[in-house]
Structures are given as structure tokens and as C-alpha cells.
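C-alpha cells incoming
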């Protein structure tokens, strides 16, 4: 089965243009990462679309994709589990919401518990 292309990022992010005055700026979409004290993160527990397994989802991160991936790696290492980082969300396998919230608060982030 062929891989489905869902966005321009899947193609490498390049656009072909016949406009001779077109100026490709590679860093045009680069988002500046806010300081931890300025970020308000939400900690969710999620079971939907995961085969009944629980995942901890951290939403609300404002910053570059590289910084998001770095924070996700720290959290995955902290909990000793897998996960992913995409669409300004960090998904950690398992119920580690309290542990992650304590860690993020110690790093200076504002963290809000959402849901049960």
C-alpha cells in the first residue's frame, strides 16, 4: 500500500514556482519557542483511537518542532516509555500524567490538569 501524503511537509516542504521573483525563505514558518514560564500546558489522559490503551497527552506547547521533540524525548526518558511529538502535542504511552506534571512544573512550565 502506498504511503498517503497528507501535507506539504511529507514532500519535504519545497514548492515549485514558475514566478521568477519568487523568494524561497526556509525559515519563514519557524516559530519562536516561548520561555517555560510563559507556556501554559495541558495534561490529558486519552484512550480514544488507541485500542483501549491509555496515553498521556501534553497540549499547548508553543515553539519550534525541534524544541517540541527535545521536550518529548526528555519526558519519554523520564517515564521510560515510548511516545511521539507532532502538531504541538506530546503523546506519552501510559498513565504518567502526575509524574510528567511534577517534572514540567519543576522546569518552570505552567501545567493544568484536564479531565478526570
Amino acid at each position: 500500500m502506498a504511503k498517503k501524503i497528507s501535507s506539504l511537509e511529507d514532500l519535504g516542504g519545497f514548492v515549485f514556482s514558475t514566478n521568477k521573483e519568487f523568494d524561497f525563505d526556509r525559515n519563514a514558518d519557524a516559530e519562536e519557542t516561548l520561555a517555560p514560564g510563559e507556556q501554559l500546558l495541558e495534561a490529558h489522559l486519552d484512550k480514544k483511537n488507541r485500542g483501549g490503551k491509555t496515553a498521556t497527552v501534553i497540549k499547548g506547547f508553543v515553539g519550534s518542532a525541534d524544541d517540541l521533540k527535545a521536550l518529548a524525548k526528555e519526558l519519554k526518558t523520564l517515564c521510560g516509555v515510548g511516545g511521539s511529538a507532532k502538531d504541538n502535542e506530546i503523546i506519552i504511552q501510559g498513565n504518567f500524567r502526575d509524574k510528567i506534571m511534577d517534572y514540567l512544573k519543576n522546569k518552570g512550565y505552567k501545567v493544568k490538569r484536564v479531565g478526570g
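note: Helices lie at 65-79, 97-106.
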